[in-house]
Amino acid sequence: MKHNLAAASAVLMALLGPALPLAAPKAAPADDARTADAKTHFRLGAQYYKEARYREAITEFETAYRIKPSGVLHYNIGQAYEKLGDVPSALGSYSAYLREEPQAANAATVQRAVANLEFRLGATGVQMLYVLTDPPDAEVWVDGRMRGRSPFYAALAQGPHAVSVAKAGYRNVTRDLVLSQEHSTELALSLQPGLSPSEPSPAAAALSASAATAPAAAQSASAAPAAATRPGEAPAKVERTSWLGPILAGSLAVVAAGAGVYMGVQARNAQNSLLHGYPSSPSAADSLAQKAKNDATTANVLYGVAGAAALTGGGFILFGGHF
């Protein structure tokens, strides 16, 4: 993506600039002070960005946003994260930019960049999850673990996940979802008021459920399956078997075995040429002998890789990905 920090900076400076006398009432002194402070941090961040000091630029842009929020700052932060190679954080910032500035002139360009980054991220076995809540600042639990507060984003393993959100004074909500390889998943939840004061928080409910089920599990090895998590309960952690490991290991075994067969044939051909052919010179004979030796060694290494990959895939299947 073409990095257009200068254009975004110009837009931001216009947003942070003082109002024209005929367009709006004169800003209060406190507002003027905040605007000036935000400008200072923004200019410093832009300078750090030009000097390739991207982490320091991010700190200054984030400070400017806290003082005087502007969606354009998310774009600048995303640019800096992308320069650092932090794809999940870049995607999180670009997503926030598009939510706050849906009519931005470069929205289509940013959307294409996001699609490209998500494709690259998906190839690594993870994908982005965004959790938005109304009202915001709710606890976000993923697979039984408290991961942060909304608005929330994270790169998680592809496949099924259980997501719960909890906020004082509101009913807990739980959703099951599946993260695909191709694109991110956004979960937008509207929280309903009415949570009973006696209803346990997800953390307390998880601890209580663990203590209550431990004795029963000790008495019987064949305990009944746990009930599905319902709104108001802690998101219980569920062990899930992923087929990604066996598939990758099996694919590697097949590729390595095929390459080993090919190199073995090459070694045999070189050996036959040496034994039954007529090399034009001693150096040609030495070259054939060395090729036969090298190809045979490579074939043996590839056979070993194929065997190890096959064993790894079997271990994933036998032990559910935990061995």
Description:
With 323 residues, this protein is of the alpha+beta class. The protein folds into three domains: 1-123, Tetratricopeptide repeat domain (Serine Threonine Protein Phosphatase 5, Tetratricopeptide repeat, Alpha Horseshoe); 125-215 and 227-240, Immunoglobulin-like, CATH 2.60.40; 244-319. It is built from nine helices and seven strands; from the N terminus they run ααααααβββββββααα. The protein has helices at 5-16, 29-50, 54-67, 71-84, 87-100, 107-122, 202-219, 244-276, 282-319; strands at 126-134, 139-142, 145-149, 152-157, 159-166, 173-179, 185-190. α1 packs antiparallel against α2, α2 (29-50) packs antiparallel against α3 (54-67) and α5 packs antiparallel against α6 (107-122). The chain is elongated and about 90 Å long. The relative contact order is 0.07.
